[in-house]
Amino acid sequence: MLTTMATKEIIQVASFKGIQVTGVTITQTGRLFANFPRWHENLPFSVVEVSLNGEYKPYPDEAWNTWHGQPQENTFTCVQSVVAHENSLFVLDPASPMMKGVVGNAMLYEFDLTTNALKNKWVFDKNIAPEKSYLNDLRIDREAGKIYITESGVGAIVVLDLNTGKPRRLLDKHASTKSEDVWLTVEGKRWVKEGDKPQMHADGIALSRDKKYLYYHALTGYTLYRVPTEALNDETLDDKALAEQVENLGKTTAPDGMIFDRLGNLYLGDLENNAIMCRLPEGELKTFVQGPQIKWPDTFTIDEQENFYFTTSRIHEMEGDISQLDFNIFKVPLTNI
């Protein structure tokens, strides 16, 4: 059943003309960060901190945001996602400029938000993030010592053990991490990528409030899946045994990012209808917010005051000239859930 929730005021937080934003995250203290993948030439920065008045500056500094075309230490290559967790900012770099293939190695960085200094980094070799891979988004479970990452270029779930530093590539041959054979229609037009049907694999990711389940979804697809984190973290399970633990949760809209709120509601985009959906714990789908300005709702984050932030990355328009397009961060209140 699909129902509509109360109309909400959509507030613009920041706008970036001609600079395509994907990720957004907010800390417990209200610091807001955003990121910009290197999908076009002359990208001025990869990660910024956004102030209350909508101004922004490169994070942690300009040097990290100045890429010279080759892999180099302490420099972002192509950042896809930022996630604030406790007093850290995690920056996921699939290292695939223009989505043309991994340059060097994909990376995950952790910055200390008190000092803004690099705290940890993890390198993903080609066994974990092969040349055509694209590490997309992540969720963190400090208590279990795990980070879960979707890989949308080929299709897989990557599990990083924070205690050993060892990553594992899982479910990379399973249908749940793969694109479905569908065309998406966005703003009335069939979405075409390089003249062909886009195939974007495991993308959206969300960790249940009790951290017992990892939810995930292909971007080009309409099926939501989940798998017990206990199974993902059990290194004794072979591919077949792990695959048997995957649950098909049924049909949804076609989303990009996903997130749970504190009540266990799952939010996911509806790329084809300029909307964000809310999936209630019992499985009912409701329209959370909808409007013409919601052009490809990409990534979501929720602050301590129960404000829901999201980016509009306009991916369906990215093959043309984007110099005059506005890419935005918006927020709406989490009310009437």
From TrEMBL:
TM regions (residue ranges): none
Signal peptide (UniProt feature, chain positions): none
Source organism superkingdom: Bacteria
Subcellular location: Secreted
One family name in Pfam for this protein: MRJP
GO cellular component, one term: extracellular region
Keywords: Secreted
Chief site of localization: secreted
The protein's name in its UniProt record: Major royal jelly protein
